[in-house]
Amino acid sequence: MKNDFVKFDNVDKSYDGKILVVKGLQLDIAEGEFVTMLGPSGSGKTTCLMMLAGFETPTHGEIYLDGNPISNIPPHKRGIGMVFQNYALFPHMTVYENLAFPLRVRKIPKDEADKKIDKALSMVSLQGFEARMPMQLSGGQQQRVAVARSLVFDPQVVLMDEPLGALDKNLRESMQYEIKHIHESIGVTVVYVTHDQTEALTMSSRIAVFNDGKVQQLSSPDELYERPVNSFVAEFIGENNTFAGTVSDISGNSCKVKLTNGTEIFANPISIKAKGEKTTVSLRPERALINPKDKMDNNHKGKIEEIIYHGDHTRVRINLLGNDQFILKIPNSTSNLDIKLGNDINVGWNTKDSRALDPK
Ligand code: ADP
Ligand code: MG
């Protein structure tokens, strides 16, 4: 397996010659990997896919595919399949003709093409639909045909740009698993784009979090959630409690942060280096405990402001150390915690779980 099967090497992109919408992109994607570009709208994800596909050129830097620079190779010779949210099927062609199109462009003989079409349709469970027109299919079926069309010519890499964005929630979730299973069974390299963090966490081997044209963090889903490297990632992925303050002491894996209300808390110094620096401390809701039995590094009094029942867990909003939006999650199998509106309670957490990041 090649670790840098797809390589963005210091890629910049500007559309107007002034503003860089992709800045110094450095990204290695291994053969057979499923890498997702995740980020808010306008962060440069589609631009990156377009450059990889060959519909846009980098302003600076180079993209390599299997070790070869691809800047001078036209899109249809790159061996890249594509699925886009708005890149609809050809409406005037049957399912069969839609799938035959990329094969005809590549001059594949008809009997071989028919075998490939059959195989691609079976991957998305749509055998027997060859003669249908796109408008005779549901949204989910159309998107499955689009997936089949992107795979039918055995591409080296498949690019998917928000392919499930137009589908309703249930269909989107089942398609996520379907695409993931297809990826696992054929082992093609996938570069996927979404702004939906749950989708990214569910499907990907690694996720590149984009903001403002830059990769903020490139990690496995669990690493990204458990160990965000900056405040943007901590906020963008999952739920996040924050405390603003100033570093009052630091040594090794521990620092003290003085909050605006004067209280000092212990935190794990991630993106701060010295006393006096401003920081935002990030703490996942499930890492804080209510009235903990055992001693924890941090233990502070708070007041319950709101209780919301969520089926498998209860969300409790607490006013804690000047933050009245502090959220805690309690599994509904837990009992006797004295959770009542207005109650004063103790909230505890350990140093390693409160991450001192760059100030927001
Ligand atoms: P994303 O896919 O993350 O939403 P895009 O790559 O589409 O982001 O866009 C990144 C930035 O580049 C945005 O500011 C967008 O307005 C701009 N942009 C995208 N495509 C073009 C284009 N063809 N011409 C000019 N500007 C563009
Ligand atoms: Mg986009």
TrEMBL record:
What's its EC?
7.6.2.11
Q: What is the top-level taxon of the source organism?
A: Bacteria
Q: Give the GO molecular function terms.
A: ATP binding
Swiss-Prot/TrEMBL keywords: ATP-binding, Cell membrane, Membrane, Nucleotide-binding, Translocase, Transport
Residue ranges annotated for the MSP domain, each copy included: 223-360
Name the InterPro entries on file. AAA+_ATPase (IPR003593), ABC_SmlMolc_Importer (IPR050093), ABC_transporter-like_ATP-bd (IPR003439), ABC_transporter-like_CS (IPR017871), Mo/tungstate-bd_C_term_dom (IPR008995), MSP_dom (IPR000535), P-loop_NTPase (IPR027417), PotA-like (IPR005893)
Q: Which PROSITE patterns match?
A: ABC_TRANSPORTER_1, ABC_TRANSPORTER_2, MSP
Pinpoint the ABC transporter domain residues: 6-237
Top EC class, one word: translocase
Question: Could you tell me what reaction this enzyme catalyses?
Answer: ATP + H2O + polyamine-[polyamine-binding protein]Side 1 = ADP + phosphate + polyamineSide 2 + [polyamine-binding protein]Side 1
A Pfam family it matches: ABC_tran
Q: Which SUPFAM superfamilies match?
A: MOP-like (SSF50331), P-loop containing nucleoside triphosphate hydrolases (SSF52540)
Family, similarity comment? Belongs to the ABC transporter superfamily. Spermidine/putrescine importer (TC 3.A.1.11.1) family.
The function of this protein is:
Part of the ABC transporter complex PotABCD involved in spermidine/putrescine import. Responsible for energy coupling to the transport system.
Subunit record text: The complex is composed of two ATP-binding proteins (PotA), two transmembrane proteins (PotB and PotC) and a solute-binding protein (PotD).
What is the name of the protein in this document? Spermidine/putrescine import ATP-binding protein PotA
